[in-house]
Write a structure and sequence with these properties.
The complex is a heterodimer of chains A (about 140) and B (about 170). Chain A has about 140 residues and is an alpha+beta fold. Chain A contains six helices and three strands. Chain B has one domain. In chain B, strand 1 and strand 2 form a beta hairpin.
């Protein structure tokens, strides 16, 4: 069906295009076929999917890209001040005070908090940033 | 110590002579080797994560080394510009300075906490410390106090630490 439509388009070319086509008919035949083939492949393939970008602020429970297989986990410790932990979360992830405070409480009360789910490179970056502030952050695989 | 947030995200600190002596003494402690240790990483069976942990440990060692150098340079610069007879010291910190300074005070707290044997919160408040341990307990408290004033000023809730222009003596 696609080819028929395309043939129709070719037959309805204007006079200028017809002149160009007839002048190089022999040599352009192969390239025209290649062009048609490529166009067919492009149009018949699925359109590119735009997946929601997780970003640092998204919840880990949301379905993300397949490569986002790494969790950034922060563990409780008895030494870091609560305000300090909240500040670090705001600074590293760009979170609101409210959200950072919620995760800090989760760390404090439940022993750990899953902060985000990312690709290996991004997760490593976040763990490094958190460790720079001396928080006990680790990288884990998403099972 | 009092602190006020500046429009550019930095802070202005106001310390009297005694506070500055403590503040600078803590930074000297940090630059002379008590610079904390890398946070422990949980071991994993996943080779990719183990490889990452190794890389992260190396990065942390480099980061701590840079922090020590930064604190040392900053201290030299500030002390060189200070007036001997001034009763107060006003220090302006950029947003970047504030972040590394918070890390330094926190590293020191963690280091002293580890010297005390990594006690839990309840034990920290107890009074069972020996004379040799007391300096670490005090250092932890002082670092925590400086951190708290800075954090309060950053969050805009620093009513305890804020100061007015009138408080600045010429």
């Amino acid at each position: 069906m696609f080819l028929n439509i395309f043939r129709g388009t070719l037959s309805s070319r204007g006079p200028r295009q017809s002149v160009i086509a007839s002048a190089g008919q022999a040599c352009s035949c192969t390239s025209l076929m290649c062009f048609l083939y490529l166009l067919f492949v492009i149009l018949s393939s699925d359109p590119p999917q735009v997946l929601p970008g997780p970003g640092p602020a998204s919840d880990p429970c949301i379905s993300l890209k397949p490569e986002d297989a790494y969790l950034v986990v922060c563990w409780d410790d008895p030494v870091n001040l609560m305000d300090y932990v909240t500040h670090v979360f705001q600074k590293v992830f760009g979170w609101s005070q409210e959200r950072a405070h919620r995760h800090m409480l989760e760390v404090h009360e439940q022993g750990k908090s899953i902060l985000t789910r990312e690709s290996l490179e991004k997760a490593e970056h976040y763990v490094h940033q958190l460790q720079c502030y001396h928080l006990q952050a680790t990288l884990e695989t998403y099972a | 110590m009092k602190a006020r947030r500046l429009d550019d995200g930095g802070l202005c600190l106001l310390l009297d002579k005694r506070e500055w002596r403590i503040f600078s003494a803590l930074l000297v402690q940090y630059t002379s080797g008590l610079d904390g240790t890398s946070p422990p990483s949980h071991s994993s069976k996943d080779p990719v994560i183990e490889e990452s942990n190794t890389w992260l440990r190396e990065m942390q060692a480099t980061h701590r080394h840079n922090l020590v150098k930064r604190a040392s340079t900053w201290l030299e610069k500030v002390e060189a510009s200070s007036l001997e007879d001034a009763s107060q010291k006003m220090i302006q910190l950029t947003g970047h300075d504030v972040e590394w300074m918070l890390q330094v005070f926190n590293d020191l707290r963690v280091s002293h906490w580890m010297l005390l044997g990594s006690p839990n919160e309840a034990d920290l408040k107890g009074e069972k410390w020996t004379e040799t341990q007391l300096p670490s307990v005090w250092s932890m408290g002082l670092c925590g106090m400086f951190q708290s004033v800075i954090l309060q000023a950053l969050s805009g809730s620093g009513e305890a630490g804020d100061f007015s222009e009138d408080e600045l003596t010429p």
